[in-house]
Amino acid sequence: MLRYLFGRLLIMIPTLFVISVLVFAIIELPPGDYFESYVQELRMLGEPTDLQEIETLKARYHFDAPAPVRYWHWVTGMLHGDFGYSFEYRMPVNEVVGDRLWLTVMMSVVTIMFTWLLAFPIGLYSATHQYSWGDYGLTFLGLIGIAVPHFMLAIILMYFANVWFGISIGHIMDVEYLDQPMGWDKLRSILSHIWIPVLIIGTAGTAGMARRLRANLLDELGKQYVVTARAKGLSPSRVVLKYPLRMALNFFIADIGSILPAIISGAEVTAIILSLETTGPMLIRALQSQDMYLAGSFLMFLAALTVVGVLVSDIALSLLDPRIRLKGRRG
Amino acid sequence: MDSLQNQPHDLLRVEGLKVAFPLLRGELTAVDGASLRVLPGKITALVGESGSGKSMTGQTIMGLQPVQAMVSGRVLFDIGKAEPLDLLGLPRDGRMIRAIRGDRIGMIFQEPMTSFSPLHTIGNQLSEALRLHRPMSRSEARERCETMLARVGFPHPGRVFDLYPFELSGGMRQRAMIAMAAICGPSLLIADEPTTALDVTIQAQILALIRDLQQERGLAVLLITHDLGVVANLADEIVVMHRGQVMEAGPTAEIFRNPQHPYLRGLMQAVPVLGAKGRVRLRPLREIPAQGILELARMSQQPVAMRAPGARPLVSLRDVTKAFLPRHQSWSLISSNAEPVTAVDGVSLDIFRGECLGLVGESGSGKTTVGKLLVRALQPDSGSIIFDDGHDVVDIGEAEGKALDALRTRIQLIFQDPVSSLSPRMTVGNILSEPLDVHRRGTPAHRRQLVMALLRAIGLSEGAASRFPHSFSGGQRQRIGIARALALAPEFIICDEVVSALDVSVQAQILNLLKDLQKELHLTYMFISHDLGVVNYMADRIAVMWRGKLVEIGPRDLIMEAPVHPYTRALLAAVPVPDPSRPLDIAAARTPTAKAEAHWPAAFREVRGQPVRMADLGGGHLVRMQVLAEPHDLPSRRVVG
After folding, report:
1. Of residues B456 and B602, which shows the higher confidence score?
2. Is ipTM > 0.90 here?
3. Which of A201, B206, B249, B282 could form a disulfide with B239 if both were Cys (CB 3.0 to 4.6 A apart)?
C-alpha cells in the first residue's frame, strides 16, 4: 500500500509538469499580451499612457525574455507560493483570489451536501420501487432537472422573486458587507443568500446523481449475493443497505476527482447571472483580458486540484474496496 | 406418487406448487403443479435440464422467487410442532419467513464466485447469519464461526475468518458458503447445483462434505442438479422434473435400475459416461437433422488425404514453454522480483492426422494455454510447434506474413461460451461468410452457397442466415460457432470446452455433430475438456496435464482403464458415475489434492534437481516419471475400469 502511494505521488510530478507546459502554451497562444491590449485601450480612450510604469512591470516579469525563461519564472514562482501579479487588478494574484476562493468553497461544499442528501434517498427509493408510480414521478422530475440549464433556472427564479416578493436575489450576501471583514452579521447574510445558488446549481447534479445511483443499484440488486443475503433471513431494507448500496458507493468516491475542481471553478455562468462573488466570473474575465498570471495560475490550480482529487479518490477506493486493495497481493 | 403420500414424517412437503410469470400476452408457467417431499435427514435430488423449473422450485420454498411471480400451492415445513407450517401462506419477506430462512433452512448456490459480497470479509458475512438468529456477543460468534469453518475443512479458520471471498479459490468459497448455510444448524439444506462450477476433484470433496454434514447432523438436503452422476452417489430419493412437472419420483436405487418415464431414460442415454459403455453413440433427447455434411464435404474441395500408417504427425509440440507475469507486476513502476507463472512447462506431444486428441486437466493446468499456442493467439517462450500437412512444414510459433495467413485457414478454434463468441451485431450469414471474405475465397455467389451448405450441415435452415445470434438457443449458437470454424475448410480444429456451457441434452447433439463432421470432413481435433466422460466419448488418445506439465499420454482405453500416473488416477476416481452401485471413493476425496501429492509413489514426485522423463510403457502410452525409476517398479497397472 505504501509503495503504491509512493508511486502515485511520484507519477504526479511529470503529470503536473506536462499540464503546466500546456497551460502556459495556451495562455501564450493569442497574439500580443496584456500590456499591448491595455495601451491600445488607453490610446483609444485618449488618455495619457504611463509607459514608464508599464516598462517597469514588463522588466520585472521578464516580458521581453523568450518564452522558456518566462515559463521558468512562472513555474518557480508558483512553487514558492507566488502566483504572480494580476495586471488588471494591480495586485498580487493571491490577494485577488483570496476572499473569493473561500466563498466559492463554502458555496460548493453546501451544494455538494445538498446534492448528496437529496440524491441518495431518491436513488434508493427509485431502485427499490422500480417501475412504480413513485419511480416514474421522480424520474420525470429528475429528467426536467437535468434538461433545464442552470442559467435559465437562475433567470426564472430572479424574475419570480422580483415579481412576487419584490426582492433581488443576486449576490452571495447583502451588498453592504461586500468588502467588510468576516463577522457574524456577514455570515448570517451569506447564509440567507446562499440557498438560492445552491438550489439552482444543485438541481441538475441531484437529478443526475439520483439517476446514476438508481442504475447502479438496479445492477447490483439482481446479483447472486443479494439472494444469499436474503436466504440468511435478513430483512429487505438491511439487505439493500449493507450489500448493494455499499457496492454502488464506489462511483460516488470515484467522482471526487472531478468534484474538487468543480468546487473551485463554481458554475461560472450561473455565478455571472446572479452576480455571485465567486471565482468563476473572475476566471472568465481574466481569460478575456489576457491577464496572463491570473488566468494561468488559476488554470494551474484547477489542474492540480484535479490531480489531487483523483489521487484522493483512488486512495479512498482502495481503502473502501478490498478487491482493489488486496488483489495485487495474490498476483 | 401414491406411495409418497401417506408419510406422516416428511420434513418438507411441496404440494401442487405452481409458479407463473405474467407476460405481455398470457403467462409463462415455470413450475406446473409440482409435488415432492424431503424426508428428515435424507438427501433428495431434484433432477432436470435447465428450464425444467427445478431452481424456481428451490427458490419458492424459501420465498425467494422474483416479485412478479404468481405462486399457488402449499409448501409444508415441519418445525417440530403438531402442524407443519405452510411457508407459502406467510407474508412475503415478513418476520415469520425470515425466521425460517438461514435458521431452519439454509441455501447454497451454483456460483461460489458471486454468492458472497466481495466487499465484506468471510467472517463478517458468516457471523451475520449466526447473530441474526442467535443473538450473542461478537467474540462468542467468532468462536462458533471458526469451529464451523474448521468443520468444513479450513486448516486455519482464524485466518479465513478475516479473508475476503476473492482471496479464496472456488472450492474453498463453496466450503465457506456451506459453513454459512449450516451455521445455525438448519434441518434442511437446499443446494442449487452446488458443484457444477467446480473441477471434478473439488466436486468430489464438496460432495463428501455435504454427505458428512448430512450424516453427522441429521441434515436433510434438497439437491438440485442436472448431473446424474452426482445424484447416483449422493441421493436417497430422486424427483425428476421436466417442463415444470414432476415426471418420476422414488428411491435412487430403484429409479436407476428401472427408470419408468421415457424422459428419464432419454436423459440417461444422453449423458456420456466413463467405461466401454461411454463409447456407444449418444442418443440426444431431441435429434437434430444434419444431412448436409456430405454436401459440404464435396463443396470444400479439399483433397482427401487419409491418414497413412506411419505418417508424420500433423502437429508436433516439442518442449513448449509459456510463462506469464502476474498482471500487477508487469505494470509496476519499480521492477519486481516476482516469479513468472509457468502456464505450460516443457510440453511435447504429437497430434496425428484424423485423430481426436483429448486434453484433460483441472482449471489452471495450462490446457487452454496449449490451445491458444496452437492457434497462435500466443507465442511460446521456447520450444517449437511444427505444423506438417505433407506439403509444407511450418513452425506455428514463428510463422509470419503469408505463411501465417495460410496457417490461419488451416487451424481453427471453437470456443466454450457460445454467447460471447458470436458478435451480436452481425447476422449469422455475415458471421459465417466473414472468414471467407477476409481470406478472399471464391466469388460472392460461391460464398453464399457455401454459407448455406454450412447451415445445412449443422442442422439449421437457410433462413437462419439473416437472423442475429440472440434469436438462437445456446446449443444452436454453439452449432453456429462450429460452422464458423468450418467455413475455411480447416484441417485441424481445437475444441476448447465446447460443451461445458451447455445442457446435458444439448451436449449430446453437439458431440454427435462434431463426430460426424470429423468422419466426413477428415478433420483432426484437439478436444480440451475437464469432463472426463465427454473426453472418453470423443477422444482416440488422451493427454493429461497437471500444473503446466504433461504427465501422461496414451490411447484412450489405456488411460481410462489402466492409468499409471497418480494424478490421472485421482482425476478418474473423482468422476461420479451415474450408477448407485459404483459409489465414489469418498475417503479419497477428503484428502485435498495438494496433500495427496505427498502420498504419490516416489517415482512420480516432482523434486527440484531430479531429472524427469516421459517413460514409454508401450503401445504409445507415456508417463512422466523420474529418470532413475524403472517402469516395472510401478504399482499394478490395471485398475478396475
Report:
1. B456
2. no
3. B249
